[in-house]
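Researcher: Let's do a round of design. I'm pasting the structure tokens now; please hold your answer until I've finished.
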């Protein structure tokens, strides 16, 4: 009978935003037996001719997969993904070298955003308690009553009431506006100086133009290009560059000179005409990092996904973190037996430090991907960390592995990384000191007491070395 009581008091949940996180969240709430209504401002992308939106494809990794698994969607999505086992670094001279992501068998998946979103909407709709509404843009809502005002498909405003509102309406969330009016709500947003454009690399002789199972990177210090494979054997290349550099390229010739200088190996693969067409089709898109806290407002509303934490895309974790939000919330609901008034503050307490940590890590990787991968010390440390991980798999875990292939809480991954960095650096210093001292000792110990060469002779020999001559 307690089960009966529970279902009789089940809340009506409104999910605002039917993007990646909103549609997955609808599945999570519906699976628990809530009545779910999704409101999405765009038309139904399953019927739309062209799908506007951000990045054509994304890297899906462990956290996202675990969340999909929870609603029985993992296999379906993974079967349409392309494994990427390593980064493939492209130098200016055309030389390529792979840097594995983790151990053998560990990989991230390139998945198409549109298909992923469509599959999740269809999965949400399959629950009898779920209803999807497209062409409904949230204008405002009342924290007191839970009444939401939407701009409907006919251009008229409609009011809809719900017991609980889940704001999954992305980086520029309208749900969040009510939070901003509250006292003690912390909020910050930062635009990075870089923008991005997407270019399509067509198939070559019916096959992928480059090795498909890699995330290709052309790191050029202050800017970079990356490419992820698609199922139709194309690659989506994304050029990340400061806006002021984009502004310098205004003609086809300027574009070709730029590509000839920095990405010459990509020109024949992209094709000159297609490159010129794709590059100038849309202006470069901006990227924003948003942090806020708390994530809940009374027991009426919670923010998840980009609405709570938009991160720059350089760790490939934005969607993964958003998917994990749904899973963490579900775990907390279990823990508190669906008592929202207790679960919501706990969700904020648990999730804020983790989402803030991934926002910081993504900023850090913004530099690592375009600049550090060119450094010899970085590569040495990557190999050393991987080797140490092989010998002591529980003690030394590369940061990328913790973030991408485990569900270690993001903020704990950062703490562990800082600790192991300190230890490894100190060990390297110690090793350096010990070997210098050892070498000095051996020199002193084994140099003959009466050298057969005098100091003057040694000095004059040194001076004859090429290095000392002009
Ligand atoms: P969104 O995808 O933005 O969806 C929000 C939805 O809400 C949209 O459908 C929108 O139409 C709707 N909406 C907005 N306002 C309203 C309103 N007022 N009323 C009703 N509906 C509304 N993440 C990864 O994990 N891996 C990657 O490799 C990766 N690569 C990326 C590359 C780029 C270039 C970019 C920009 C991002 C990348 N991300 C990646 C991040 C990822 O795209 C986002 O984290 C993810 O899309 C967040 O999903 P969301 O549902 O929270 O928000």
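Researcher: That's everything. Go ahead.
Model: Designed sequence:
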């Amino acid at each position: 009978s307690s089960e009966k009581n529970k279902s009789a008091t089940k809340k009506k949940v409104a999910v605002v935003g039917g993007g990646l996180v909103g549609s997955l969240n609808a599945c999570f709430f519906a699976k628990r037996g809530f009545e779910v209504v999704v409101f999405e401002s765009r038309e139904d992308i399953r019927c739309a001719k062209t799908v506007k939106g951000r990045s054509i494809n994304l890297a899906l990794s462990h956290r996202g997969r675990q969340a999909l698994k929870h609603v029985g969607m993992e296999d379906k999505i993974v079967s349409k993904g392309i494994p990427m086992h390593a980064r493939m670094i492209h130098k200016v001279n055309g030389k390529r070298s792979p840097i594995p992501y983790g151990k053998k068998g560990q990989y991230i998946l390139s998945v198409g955003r549109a298909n992923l979103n469509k599959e999740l909407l269809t999965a949400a709709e399959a629950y009898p308690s779920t209803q999807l509404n497209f062409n409904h843009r949230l204008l405002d809502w009342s924290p007191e009553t839970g009444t939401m005002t939407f701009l409907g498909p006919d251009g008229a405003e409609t009011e809809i009431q719900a017991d609980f509102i889940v704001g999954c309406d992305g980086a520029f969330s309208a749900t969040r506006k009510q939070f901003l009016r509250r006292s003690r709500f912390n909020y910050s947003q930062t635009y990075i100086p870089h923008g991005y454009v997407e270019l399509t690399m067509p198939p070559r002789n019916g096959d992928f133009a480059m090795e498909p199972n890699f995330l290709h990177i052309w790191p050029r210090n202050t800017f970079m290009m990356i490419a992820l494979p698609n199922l139709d054997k194309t690659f989506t290349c994304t050029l990340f560059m400061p806006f002021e550099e984009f502004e310098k390229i205004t003609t086809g010739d300027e574009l070709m000179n730029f590509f000839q200088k920095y990405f010459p190996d990509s020109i024949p693969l992209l094709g000159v005409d297609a490159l010129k067409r794709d590059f100038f089709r849309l202006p470069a898109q901006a990227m924003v990092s948003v942090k806020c806290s708390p994530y809940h407002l009374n027991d009426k509303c919670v923010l998840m996904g980009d609405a709570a934490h938009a991160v720059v895309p350089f760790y490939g974790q934005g969607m993964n973190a958003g998917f994990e939000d749904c899973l963490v919330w579900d775990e907390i609901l279990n823990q508190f037996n669906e008592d929202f008034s207790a679960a919501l503050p706990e969700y904020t307490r648990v999730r804020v430090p983790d989402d803030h940590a991934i926002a910081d890590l993504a900023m850090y990787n913004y530099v690592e991907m375009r600049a550090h991968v060119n450094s010899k010390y970085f590569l040495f440390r990557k190999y050393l960390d991987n080797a140490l991980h092989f010998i002591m798999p529980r003690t030394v875990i590369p940061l990328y592995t913790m973030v991408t292939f485990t569900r270690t809480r993001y903020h704990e991954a950062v703490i562990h990384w800082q600790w192991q960095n300190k230890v490894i650096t100190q060990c390297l210093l110690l090793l350096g000191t010990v070997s210098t001292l050892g070498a000095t000792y051996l020199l002193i110990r084994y140099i003959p007491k009466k050298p057969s060469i005098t100091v003057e002779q040694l000095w004059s020999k040194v001076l004859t070395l090429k290095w000392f001559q002009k």
